[in-house]
Amino acid sequence: MKFNKMIYIMTILLLGMSIILNIYQFNLRDKMNREYKVLTEEIGAKEKIIDMKNSRINKLESKIENMKQQISVTEDKSEDNVLEEIFPFEYEDIVDITFYRGKEKLPMDIDIEELKQKTLQSLYWLGDNARANIDFKELLDLEPIYIVFKLKDRTISYIYFYEKNVILMNGEAFHPGKYLYLVLNQILAPNSIIAKISRALEYKKDVENENYKSNYDSIYHFSRLEVNGKDFVQWEKELTKLNKIKSIPFYSMSEEIDFIEVYKEGIVKFDLSIVFTNDKYKTKDGITVGLTKDEVISKLGKPNSIRGNKWGYLIGDYIRFFIIFEGNKVKYLMETMPL
Q1: I need a surface site. Which of 150, 240, 275, 288 has the fewest CB within 10 A?
Q2: How many angstroms separate the CA atoms of 283 and 276, rounded?
C-alpha cells in the first residue's frame, strides 16, 4: 500500500515537472521569437536609414551639381583674375538691382545709386585672394539670396549666401567686400549690433558738415585718445583673448580675407576699425558712451572734423579716433588704423 502511494506521488511530481518544463520551454521560445522579431526590425530600420542616407547623399551631390550649373560663368579671364576685368557689364549698364530670398523680393530702403555703388564696390575688385576656401556642402542647408542685375539690354543674376558672405560667380566661390553683407544685414538682421553700427556709419551720412570749419592744426597726443589705455594695434592683440560670438569673412582693402567680428564684451571689429559700444570703455579724459556733445567738448575740445554724426580727431598725420553720436549723445567710440 505504501509502495503504491509512493509511486502515485512520484507520478504526480513528474507530471508537475513536465508541465513546468513545457511552460518554461514555451516562454523561452516566445521570448526568443520576440527578440528575433525586434532584432529583425532593428536590422530593417538600420537598412532603411542606410538607404535614406545613400539617397540623401545622392540628392546632395545632385544639388551641388545643379548649384554649380546655376553659377554665372565667364570664359575670358584677365591676367590678374580681377573680376572688374571680366564682369559682363559696366556700372552705367545697371538700371536696377533687386534681391530675392526664394520668391520673396527683399525691400531695399536705399537709393539706387548708393546701392549700385556699394554692391559693385563689393564685387568689382575681387582678386585671387578673394576666393572662398569652402566646400559646397557647407552651403546646402543655407537659403540662397539671388542678386538680380537689371541691365539696359538683359538681366543677370548671381547666387549669394548671406550667412557666409559667399557669392558664386565666374565658376567659383568668392568672399565679396563687406558692403554687400552690410546692406543685406540691415534687412535680414536690423536689430543686430552690426546693423546698428552700420546705420550709424551710413555712407549718405558720411559727408563733411558744411556748417563746421574743419581744423587740422591741432594734433592730439595719442595717449589721450587710447581706449582703456590701448591703441588699435594693442586692441587687436587684446581681442584674441576675448569671447568672439560672430565672424563674417570679407575681401578687404588690403586685398586679403579679413573678418567682421563681434565680441561678447561689447566690441565690434570692422576691417581697420574697432568700435566700442558701452561705457566700460573710456579714454584718458573720460570720453565714453552716453556723454553729451557739450561734455565731450569740455573734456576734449572741438574735433578736427565733423562728418555727419561722426566727430574725428587727429593723431599724427591721420584722423584715427572717432566719436559717433546718436542725437546729442555718444553712441560709439571708434579707433582706426589708416592704410
Answers
A1: 240
A2: 11
Alpha-carbon gap, residue 287 to 45, rounded angstroms: 65
- The C-alpha R_g of the chain, in whole angstroms, comes to 34
Cell of 199: 546705420
CB 199 within 8 A of CB 207: no
Three-state secondary structure string covering 291-326: CEHHHHHHHHCCCCEEECCEEEEEECCEEEEEEEEE
3-state secondary structure of 212: coil
Q: How far apart are CA 242 and CA 223, in angstroms?
A: 23
Residue 314 burial (C-beta neighbours within 10 Å; 0-12, 13-18, 19+): buried
Position 192, amino acid: S
232 has a pLDDT exceeding 90: yes
Contacts of 253 (CB under 8 A, 6+ apart): 271, 272, 339
Q: Please give the backbone phi and psi of residue 208, each rounded to the nearest 5 degrees, phi first.
A: -60, 135
Terminus-to-terminus CA distance in the chain, angstroms? Answer: 121
Contacts of 75 (CB under 8 A, 6+ apart): none
The mean pLDDT of the chain is 81
67, pLDDT greater than 60: no
Burial class (CB in 10 A: 0-12, 13-18, 19+), 204: exposed
Amino acid at position 209, single letter: N
Distances from the Cα of 57 to the Cαs of 52, 54, 134, 141, in angstroms? 8, 5, 18, 13
Between residues 135 and 49, the one the model is more confident about: 135
The b-or-e profile of 267-283 (16+ CB within 10 A means b, else e) is bbbbbbbbbbbeeebbb
* pLDDT at residue 80 in the model: 47
Q: Strand order in 310-315's β-sheet?
A: 244-251, 257-263, 267-270, 273-276, 329-336, 318-326, 310-315, 305-307
